[in-house]
C-alpha cells in the first residue's frame, strides 16, 4: 500500500488500465477533497458539488483509456469536474444559493510569501462575489495552487488570458473586499 | 467533507466492482480518432479540389464575364459545399464531445485549415493539375460538362452576333 502512495498519478492510471482496477480508489483518495472544494466554489451547493465530483470520477474511469499518459492527470480530472460543474450550473441557474461562510481548507501546509498569503485570505472571503470567469482562474491559482499552464489546460484558455483574468480578478477583489470588510 | 469522501470512494468503487460502469476499450478511442482523421483528410481533399476548381473557372474566363459567372453559379456543385460545412461543424462537435481532455484552439484549427486549402488550391492551379484532372481525374465529367456548356454559350453568343448583323 505504501508503494502505491509513492507512485505518480499517471503510473497509477496505467496500472488501473492494465491490471488492477481497485487502485482507482487511490486516485479518488488523492483528489476528492481538492475536487470537492473546487466544485463547491463553482456550484456553491455541497450536495450538488459532491454529485458533480462523483459523476466526474465515474466519467474519468469510463474514459480512462482516452487519457494521454504524457499529460498531467490532475489537469485532466479538473477539466472533467469543470465541465460537470458547468453543466450543473446551467441546469440550476436560478436555484443555486450564495455561500456565506464555507471553510475552504487548502489541505496543505506550504508556506507562502506574505502577499500571496494575504491574497489567499481575501480570495477565501470574497470569491463568491466575483463573476465566475474571473473567480475560477483565481481560485485555481491561489486556492488549488495550480500553475498558469495547468489553469490554461483546465479552462482551455491561452496562458496570457489566464494571467489577464487573474490580474483583473485581483483588482475586482480589491474593490469588493474593501466594501465587505 | 469527510462524509462525501467516504461516499464518493465507496459509491464509485462499488459501481466498478459490480461492473455497473466499465472502462471503454482503447480501440473505441482509436476508432474515434481514426474516423475524425479520415473525415478531416476527406474534407481537406474536397476543399482543395473546390478551390482549384474555382481558380480554374476564373482562369478560363474571357469576355462576357457576367454571363460566365452565372454559368459558374448554376453549374457549381453546391451540395459539396453544404457537405463541407456540415462536416466541419460535426467534426468540431465530435472533437469537443469525445476529446474533453485537452485544450484545442478551434479558431486556430479552422484558420490553418482554410489557409492550407487555399494555398494547396492555388498551387494545384499553378502546377496545372486542374488541366490534368480535366483529362483523367475523378471530376473529369464535371470539368468537361463545364467546358461543353461554355462552348455552347460561346456558339450561342456568336450566332446571336451574326443574327444581329444580318438583321441590321
Classify the fold: give the CATH topology of the largest domain in chain A. Rna Polymerase Sigma Factor, Chain: A
Question: What is the total domain count of chain A?
Answer: 2
Largest interface: A-B, 35 and 28 residues
The count of DSSP E runs of length 2 or more, i.e. the number of strands of chain B, is 0
Under the CATH scheme, the architecture of the largest domain in chain A is Orthogonal Bundle
Low-confidence residue ranges of chain A: 96-114
Structural class of the secondary elements of chain B?
mainly alpha
CATH superfamily of the largest domain in chain A: RNA polymerase sigma factor, region 2, helix turn helix motif
Oligomer: heterodimer
Description:
The complex is a heterodimer of chains A (about 180) and B (about 170). Chain A is globular, with a radius of gyration of 17 Å. Chain A is mainly α and about 180 residues long. Chain A is built from 9 helices and no strands. Chain A has helices spanning about 1-5, 10-20, 25-45, 45-60, 75-90, 115-125, 130-145, 150-155, 160-180. The model of chain A is unreliable at about 95-115 (pLDDT under 50). In chain A, about 70% of the residues lie in helices and about 0% in strands. Chain A has 2 domains: about 1-100, Orthogonal Bundle (Rna Polymerase Sigma Factor, Chain: A), CATH 1.10.1740; about 105-180, Winged helix-like DNA-binding domain superfamily/Winged helix DNA-binding domain (Arc Repressor Mutant, subunit A, Orthogonal Bundle), CATH 1.10.10.10. In chain A, α3 crosses α5 (about 75-90), α4 (about 45-60) packs across α5 and α6 (about 115-125) crosses α9 (about 160-180). Chain B is mainly α. Chain B has one domain (about 25-165). Chain B is built from 7 helices and no strands. In chain B, α2 (about 25-60) crosses α5 (about 105-125). The N and C termini of chain B lie far apart (about 100 Å). The chains are: A mainly alpha (about 180), B mainly alpha (about 170). The interface of A and B includes residues 33, 37, 63, 65 and 67 of A.
Amino acid at each position: 500500500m505504501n508503494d502505491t502512495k509513492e507512485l505518480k498519478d499517471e503510473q497509477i492510471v496505467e496500472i488501473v488500465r492494465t491490471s488492477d482496477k481497485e487502485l482507482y480508489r487511490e486516485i479518488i483518495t488523492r483528489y476528492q477533497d481538492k475536487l470537492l472544494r473546487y466544485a463547491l466554489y463553482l456550484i456553491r451547493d455541497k450536495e450538488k458539488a459532491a454529485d458533480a465530483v462523483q459523476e466526474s470520477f465515474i466519467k474519468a474511469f469510463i474514459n480512462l483509456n482516452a487519457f494521454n499518459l504524457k499529460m498531467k492527470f490532475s489537469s485532466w480530472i479538473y477539466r472533467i469536474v469543470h465541465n460537470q460543474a458547468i453543466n450543473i450550473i446551467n441546469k440550476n441557474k436560478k436555484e443555486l444559493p450564495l455561500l456565506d461562510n464555507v471553510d475552504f481548507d487548502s489541505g496543505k501546509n506550504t508556506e507562502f510569501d506574505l502577499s500571496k498569503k494575504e491574497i489567499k485570505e481575501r480570495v477565501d472571503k470574497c470569491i463568491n462575489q466575483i463573476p465566475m470567469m474571473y473567480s475560477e482562474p483565481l481560485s485555481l491559482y491561489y486556492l488549488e495552487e495550480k500553475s498558469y499552464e495547468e489553469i490554461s489546460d483546465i479552462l482551455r484558455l491561452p496562458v496570457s488570458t489566464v494571467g489577464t483574468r487573474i490580474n483583473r480578478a485581483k483588482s475586482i477583489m480589491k474593490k469588493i473586499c474593501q466594501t465587505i470588510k | 467533507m469527510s462524509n462525501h469522501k467516504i461516499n464518493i470512494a465507496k459509491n464509485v468503487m462499488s459501481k466498478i466492482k459490480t461492473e455497473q460502469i466499465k472502462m471503454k476499450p482503447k480501440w473505441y478511442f482509436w476508432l474515434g480518432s481514426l474516423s475524425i482523421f479520415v473525415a478531416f483528410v476527406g474534407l481537406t481533399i474536397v476543399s482543395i479540389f473546390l478551390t482549384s476548381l474555382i481558380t480554374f473557372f476564373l482562369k478560363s474566363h474571357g469576355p462576357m464575364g457576367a454571363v460566365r459567372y452565372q454559368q459558374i453559379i448554376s453549374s457549381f456543385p453546391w451540395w459539396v459545399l453544404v457537405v463541407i460545412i456540415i462536416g466541419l461543424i460535426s467534426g468540431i462537435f465530435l472533437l469537443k464531445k469525445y476529446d474533453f481532455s485537452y485544450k484545442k484552439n478551434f479558431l486556430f484549427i479552422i484558420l490553418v485549415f482554410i489557409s492550407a486549402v487555399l494555398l494547396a488550391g492555388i498551387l494545384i492551379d499553378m502546377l496545372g493539375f486542374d488541366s490534368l484532372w480535366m483529362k483523367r481525374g475523378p471530376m473529369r465529367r464535371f470539368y468537361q460538362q463545364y467546358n461543353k456548356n461554355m462552348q455552347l454559350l460561346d456558339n450561342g453568343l456568336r450566332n446571336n452576333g451574326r443574327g444581329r448583323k444580318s438583321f441590321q
